[in-house]
Amino acid sequence: MPATRRTRPIVFLQGRRIYFRPLEVADTNTCQRWINDLGTRQYMLNVRPLTEVEERRFIEGIADRKDDVIVGIVTRSGHRLIGSTGLHAVCWTDRRATFGIMIGEPSFRGKGYGTEATALMLQHAFETLNLNRVDLDVYDFNTAGIRAYEKSGFVREGVMRQFRFAHGRYADVFRYSILAEEYFARNGGGSEPRSGTR
User: Fold this and answer.
1) pLDDT, tens digit, 9 for 90 and up, residues 104-149
2) Are 68 and 87 spatial neighbours (Cβ–Cβ below 8 Å)?
3) In angstroms, rounded to a whole number, what is the distance separating the alpha carbons of residues 150 and 50?
4) How many helices (H) and strands (E) does the chain have?
5) What does DSSP assign to residue 155?
6) Contact of 131 with 125, CB cutoff 8 Å
């Protein structure tokens, strides 16, 4: 919902053009639309329609998922929810997690919002949660995602050959990761907040 004079937006983390906030039940229909859209779904694992009930249950269950950090991505200008991102399966002993992101609104893709959201989530992972490693898997045909991940400092460390059948062929899946030492080397030691965070 757009912010008004009477309603201040809930801001969990803030960047230059975006901020993170909790996903709420009111976001159910928006998120359901994104996940059922082919432009989004082609990069995900689901191969059947996602119902409103299923998406609502997912959002309602976020609070109980203590090893996941899942947030909505919102534009600072206009306060529009454009996607979601998260750290999943956080292992607090090994200090690692798996990163995921979805820019659900097609008109906001290819404009740097995903790259900024990735940087903001990595800042949270390494500078607040004290993680040592963040990894992700990406399909070989997701060229935009690969560019954004490499720009953010992720390093390709392996390939799972012919892992998924998509677009009429078997696609490889690339495993990427970034370590805390690599993150801090890229970001000046992490002593100062960046990207307008507070």
Assistant:
1) 999 999 999 999 999 999 999 999 999 999 999 999 999 999 999 9
2) yes
3) 31
4) 6, 8
5) E
6) yes
Under 8 Å between Cβ of 63 and 24: no
- Single-letter amino acid code for the residue at 13: L
Are 184 and 126 spatial neighbours (Cβ–Cβ below 8 Å)? Answer: yes
* Residue type (1 letter), 141: F
Q: What are the structural domains, with CATH classification, of the chain?
A: 13-189 (3.40.630.30)
DSSP reduced 3-state for 192: coil
Residue type, 40: T
Write down the pTM of the prediction. Answer: 0.89
The runs of H, that is alpha helices, within the chain are: 28-36, 38-41, 52-61, 113-127, 143-151, 180-186
Residues 6+ apart with CB under 8 A from 100: 85, 86, 88, 136
